[in-house]
Amino acid sequence: MLTLTVENHFEDWRAKARTLLLAGVSPNEVIWEEPGQSGLFPTEYPLPPPSKSQTPIVTREFLSLAETISYHNSHQKWVLLYRTLWRLTLGGETHLLKRTTDPDILSLLRMRKEIARDIHKMHAFVRFKKTGDDMQSERENFMAWFEPDHRIMPLTAQFFQKRFTGMDWSIFTPTGSASWDGKTLRLGPGVDKVEVPKEELDELWRGYYKSIFNPARLKVKAMQAEMPKKYWHNLPESNLIESLISESRHRVQEMHKETLRSATSGGKNPYLKHLRNLTSHDENIVLNPDEHIRQPLSRIRELATCCQACPLHQKATGTVLGEGPADAEIMIVGEQPGDQEDLLGRPFVGPAGKLLDHFLSKTGIDRKECYVTNAVKHFKFIPRGNQRFHQSPNLYEISRCKPWLVGELQEVKPRIIILLGSTAARSLIGTHFKITQQRGIITGTGLAAKVIATVHPSYLLRIKDSQQQQHEKTLFLKDLQLVR
Prior knowledge:
alpha/beta, five-stranded mixed sheet, 14% strand
């Protein structure tokens, strides 16, 4: 039995693993340890001489995966990596990385996911505190303390360098540190707990967090999953969280009351009936499709936050209204928010949104100059395990959301409307509209100077056959080119 100590970095493990492969040492004959460990076989023996003339070929995919996982805190990572390396090379399992049901591969992929999540948390929750000024360079000095789950400082340092290149800063963690002086990014060892001074930026953080906290979108479990309590003690806004949660129900009730007061104060109001429906439990009430919400977009957004016109609001994270210039010439209408849109509160930010951006760019359309929205404002889904799968809205749900869409349409007054998918077309043109038969320019709608109906980008993503997918993408591009 051979016992090896790895100095906690990828290159050290890679060099030793290469030597073991050349010597033909199987995974069962090696005990991998880290500095400070002492197992049943504490004595480290010299590496055996090579018995093979050629180094086995290792793919870049595995090397990239191994380098990422080398930053994981698990002591089992070196064992898993060498066993996988052996199976990929001397074991002859060349396609092992594609077998995602294999226990070893599952463990490695889980580790990579945990590291990615840890990086995301560090990007989101590092809070710099000002410690002084450099009188010679006129640059401000900042420091931060963070406690990640894994040794990710080398993986995140460049992010902070690019984001905060105009100031001098240092970040300290228990497993590593980084500093930037405007010229050089330096990595260092971990340190014990650092006392970060309190300063005026704390109040700015608290004010900002209080201003963006939306009680109508509050899902406590989802919030704690995204912002675990273990990070709270390093966040200046953390002392507001519990009080904001406890006050959220009262604030939502007040928003409903304010909505009704503002609706009734002006006498006759074109959206009064819809506002009454928002707090009504009478399922027999049917909206008049011609009713519009004639309010500025900011006010429509505020009103829609409290929307309870159909049961979709009960499971969704919140209402997702459109975004873009209030005077946009082009308005793009999709079906409904997806999983990522529901979590982020913005339309078309998931895979379908990225595909749409690609085709808009090919057509010469700048998305930033378009108003992008959906016919239905809440995410309708079927939960399966930890995932939420899209479910198409029915005609009742489309009709209940129509006043919000019409309100957006009346305020933006676009010259061109692009309808993506059947739900968008049924909402504004008619319930019997069929994309497969009527795609292209739609005349006689009275909605805008030009109305174009085409498939939804998510339809393109669902096509399995590559030849058919390419054909449909060509048709989709031609439909978008009708804008010109």
